[in-house]
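Example (one chain per record):
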Amino acid sequence: MKLDIRSLLFGSALAVALFAGYSFRPNPVAPAYTYLQFSTIESVVPGGLGRSRVIISDQGDQEVGKDLLNFFSMVGINFKNIASNDRLIVETVNEYVSKGWELYTVTTGVQSNDKTGLFITRYLFRKPV
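Predicted structure:
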């Protein structure tokens, strides 16, 4: 098979063009975000003696708190309180999503001993600047 000079030049030019086009593209710029976080602290203390809250850090670094109900009442675990807390948390998430925030990550943690405990959940939101 005989190669002619035109085919060889065309192939070489195409390879150089593809390499140059791929190699010298500007790097994509990562979008800039602003972040907002709220945390839920839910107390597990028998007898309803614990305190549970939503703590919101807004752009002015102010703490905005909303009361949550305790998991326990005087007679044991209170499922109505848990359902009420879930509604408040979902309403808070929906409020920020409707304002253009993206729920970026959720992190959970537990601290407990034999009789008491604490559930903490952090909801991190971001929005392009």
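Caption: The mean pLDDT is 83.
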